[in-house]
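Q: Fold this one first, please.
A: Sequence and structure below.
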Amino acid sequence: MTATSNLIDDAPLTRFHKKLTFFASGGPFIDGYALSIIGIAFITMTPSLQLTTAEIGLIGAASLIGIFFGGAIFGWLTDKIGRHKMYIADLIALALFSLLNGLATEVWQVVLCRFLLGMAIGADYPIATSLLAEFLPRKVRGRLLGATFVVWAVGAAAAFAVGYLLRDIGPDAWRWMVASPAIFAVVTLLCRLGTPESPRWLLSRGRQDEARAVIKKVYGEQYDLSDISSDVEGESKQGRFTDIFKGELLKRTLFVSIFWTAQVIPLFAVYTFAPDLLASFGLTGDANLYGGSFLISMLFVIGGIPGLWLVEKIGRRKLLLWSFGVIVVALGIPAFIPNVQAAPLFIALAIFALASGASSFLEVVYPNELFPTEIRATAVGFGTAISRVGSAASTYLMPVAIISFGAAGSLLIGALVSLVGLLATFLLAPETANKSLHELTGKKAPGMMPAELAKEGSPL
């Protein structure tokens, strides 16, 4: 093999890549499941614990606040001590805090468990996606990284199905619901055992012998360090948290933070309070509330199918621009329909789900492609953290928004937030499709100046 064979970036897709993608998908599945199951758990939790509106909002936001701290702290820690150790530890935490949540007897205990659960969820974003990105060939990197996040919507859909099945087991149904993520955490943990450390990360720490051993184990004895195109070129290089705020990386951090936040604010508000939102449309009964919530969650999954094809076909930037544009129009129109009825509101929400599902996975694709190995997990963790500030606020305020502005007004707020994401993408987003990590994060990595983007032609 030669130094130009670019083992990781240009290698054919193998069974190892598929297995690693499947293992990495466990975290997003649990995330979608755990964050969505709480919306249904509130139906029996509210009378059981005599929750106030403020307490409902706080419980809904607690896990998102936890994700803020988990992403920021453990993303940085993942770059320091390695992907593999954290890859296992966070699943143990997910299982533990889910079980404790089911045993809670006071509101503060539920809030604390949801917060700690959120920290574990936030940790998995930078851990699993950084590890996966550093193994994947560039031709399928966007698609397979994205596939792990589409599984988020599968987890959310599963939550509504499980919630429906458990709804009639009595006043303690909520306990079984909030404890159930532990089952998926244990299964994912068992699958991940034995996963190798990223050779890119090992090289960034100057551990060449270990990196060589991983390469030979994964790809065969005929491969060596000369066959890996590394953005750190094999030298020991330890990144600092502040590196993501310097020079060109500051622009990338700004872009990732804004577009990620704009995506998750309406998404988490809808998922956490889907039954309440549908009730505000005028829908009633289990078939409408549970069934409607399940349908919306499945539309996120369906939207992800063409999205995973388009992400490599038309690129990341155009896909994100189009999805934001569709969401702005879909969520904004009902506000201008006098005495709008349930059908137009539900259609608007359905279109939002399809468009959001088609591009929400870029939240893990873009940051993993835009930052070098020594700070990749830090950047993903920071993007996760910042996005959760907005999503926690929107989740806490969602019950108030429904009461104060009504269904159409609540959707309009989502449209305005998405408009901010559209503008940020237009001004700051680069195109990263079909480029090696070395091209994107090396010293000559392309910048993101608007003038340079203009040379690429119209974004739409």
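Q: Good. Now the second chain.
A: Here it is, same layout.
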Amino acid sequence: MPRSVNSVASRARRKKVMKQAKGFFGRRKNVWTVAKNAVEKAMQYAYRGRKEKKRSFRSLWVTRINAGAREHGLSYSQFMGALKKNNIELNRKVLADLAMNHPEAFKAVVDQVK
């Protein structure tokens, strides 16, 4: 009995990986073994990057809130502590947006917690 290989599926699998490698430099874009490794590594970086993005955005929000709070004579930790004590449930993303784009609204929040 002849050996049966599913070349349709194999080709489709390779084609999918080669499509993902489009735009890579040198042999990474057109040599199967090199492209496969490059795509696998790229997927690892992408997965890790999605987690890091959340961290970096939170850090940015904290920095913006801190800058806005210090304009009104409070540190970040004092401001966040006062928010918790007064049961004001605004998340950091919203507070950072207020501090950056709507300073009068942020001032109103600060005045409410002082």
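Q: Anything worth noting on the second one?
A: The chain has one domain: 9-112.
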